[in-house]
Amino acid sequence: MQFFIEVLVGGLLSGVMYALVALGFVLIYKASGVFNFAQGAMVFFAALTFVGFQEVLPGWLGLEADSGVVFWLAFLLAFIAMIVLGIATERIVLRPLVNQPHITLFMATIGLTYVVEGIAQMTWGANVRGLDLGIVDEPIAWLMDNYEIGVSKFDLFAAGVAASLVALLALLFQYTKVGRALRAVADDHQAALSIGIPLQTIWRVVWAVAGFVALVAGMIWGARNGVQFALTFTALKALPVLILGGFTSVPGAIVGGLIIGASEKLAEVYVGPFVGGGIEGWFPYMLALAFLLFRPEGLFGEKHIDRV
Amino acid sequence: MKLKKTVLLGAIIAGLLGSSLASANEEQFIGLPSYRVGPYAAGGSGLFGGWIDYMQLVNERDGGVNGVKLSWEECETEYNNARGVECYERLKKKGSTGNSVFQPVSTGITYSVLEKVAQDKIPMVTIGYGRTDAADGRVFPWVFPMITTYWSQASAIVNYMGQKEGGMDKLKGKKIGLLYHDSAYGKESHAIMDKLAAKHGFEVIKIAVAHPGNEQQSQWLQIRQAKPDYVVLWGWGVMNPTAIKAAAKTGFPREKLIGVWWSGAEEDTIPAGPAAKGFVAAGFNVAGANYPVIADIKKHVYGKNKGNMEDKTRVGSVYYNRGVVHGIITVEAIRKAQEKYGKGKALTGEQVRWGFENLNLDDARLKALGATGFLPPLKITCADHEGPGKVKFQQWDGNQWKVITDWVDSDRPLVRGMIEESAAAYAKEKGIKPRDCSKES
């Protein structure tokens, strides 16, 4: 039983990590109806820019490499880089494609993926870097000693960050002017434009917020596995989460993440050995596909109704 | 008549001058299917940087191989099979004599061009990867999986465990976890580990990790439950630091986590941070800049600002040194082939193949190259395209790799038996008549 609980809790916490990446997709999809294929590349770009600045800032400013000033300055500069990337994407990629079919915008984001990956590696190099956030990835001793259940401190920290991020985004959407405008754009582009909501500004805001989410996700995943190209693969983990939770729901991303995380770990441990193992890669997709049969819009997605 | 004679004499002199000039300008072309962008760029940039630096060293310090300058061109594969084949085709006719050797640095690309190299008469060298049974040169005359193969490596790792336990007989009843990348590369370990388990009486617990391997919680929970004595990490890319961190998280001692050579580079340990301290990995080359060959590269190549590495601190890293090993083997095969086909001449791929097949890097030669202990002594024959099958073990001390063993042997009779069996099955399937090596010169 302890083992089952450990697998379940570990899975739920992993799910939160997937949800962190999925949030970026949801934000952009909500505001522009675009499935941003480049979200994984943005996570990589953000994390690499952060560690890149962490490397160069001590030399530029004559500070200690592990000082708090360097950390927060690097975070700020990386966030600014994400805002610039968001604005550039809106200007160069999205604006010329206004009123084009969604599939065109989607294809444009595929191209954007390669550009973002290329710029990141051209600017900061292809070296693999470590990233230390000061949170050790080891089990909580009390749980281990008393119940023999290993729950990682780092995973709990990541869950806390994700929860804070969701709360922050919920506040932004519900209680700010920008948030209301975002919701209006998400509901109907043309209606939003007709009442004077500047679509392009909203898009820039959304891409900047998605950039912020990518930065946080990149730092957490980077601290866990290193800052390297493989961060782009985190998007693969977010896709089934989106299908399950719905492309337009922030809480959906979290709930979807929890379900996917828990089910894939349980499946790997309890079903995997009977089918040769390594099922974690495809199991979430199979689950998401099965889910699509019953609820195509996902758990929390908006139901799409067409007039005939 | 006088004019005719003068013209004739002039023509002869011009011809002689021309031919000697042509000889002075002889170049041996080597096509490099590199990967400097994409998911594995970090390893690729180090490996190809070291390889190019070594060839540059030979040009700068020695004026080439017996006066024949080495030339090369990179073709970006992004570690993608289709691009690899495209690069093979693009590079094969380059240079005055075509591509001398194709070294894909990818098992996938190796399989994709396996039959093409024989048709085009270009030797394919796969150092530490590729198709293991190609070590049987009677069936695969054009392929050279040199120094050591995956099967030899697995066997050497088990021998290392035996050493640590105080004898191979002490492995009886032990449990060895095999955490492998769920791909053809990862599964390459299964057959040999099963054979070794049967021979030495240990149990192998195989645990697959789905690509890319950036999540391994469930695998490490299974490992914790099974309580193995050792875990072999047969990983690639992000799977490696993830495994090392997960090992630390579950309290598995890093000294008992033994990586293969694609798991044992700085790119695998640095991202894992302090968790990697104590981690051990096999390698057919070692890390470190304290070798005369590396000192020469620093002096003759970086001293003239002709180095390939943007980040010079990586000179001497595992991947960089592996690239230097590729360079040494390529250059020495060309040198050997020139002994037969003419010194100072650019050679065809077919001629260079002979050089690979008769390569003998003994202790004396390695010393002359400034590479004693850098790679194992190597002797290739018509039948044996692998060579020594030895590895050294290195341990990460938190900052760098430290060599902790001498060259550790594999179980040669067992491995060679498996190679011959598998190669014979391939030959039967493809209708290939194995060469009679007693008739080869």
From TrEMBL, chain A:
Pfam families: BPD_transp_2
Keywords: Amino-acid transport, Cell membrane, Membrane, Transmembrane, Transmembrane helix, Transport
One GO biological process term: amino acid transport
TM regions (residue ranges): 12-29, 41-63, 69-93, 105-124, 154-173, 202-221, 241-262, 274-294
Membrane topology (UniProt): Multi-pass membrane protein
Principal location class: membrane
MF (Gene Ontology): transmembrane transporter activity
Domain of life: Bacteria
Subcellular location: Cell membrane
Gene Ontology terms: cellular component: plasma membrane
Protein family per UniProt: Belongs to the binding-protein-dependent transport system permease family. LivHM subfamily.
PANTHER family in the cross-refs: ABC TRANSPORTER PERMEASE PROTEIN, BRANCHED-CHAIN AMINO ACID TRANSPORT SYSTEM PERMEASE PROTEIN LIVH
Protein name (Swiss-Prot/TrEMBL): Branched-chain amino acid ABC transporter permease
Species of origin: Zoogloea dura
From TrEMBL, chain B:
UniProt xrefs under Gene3D superfamilies: 3.40.50.2300
UniProtKB keywords: Signal
Leucine-binding protein domain sequence ranges: 29-398
Signal peptide: 1-24
One Pfam family cited in the UniProt record for this chain: Peripla_BP_6
Highest taxon in the source lineage: Bacteria
Family note: Belongs to the leucine-binding protein family.
Name of the molecule in the record: ABC transporter substrate-binding protein
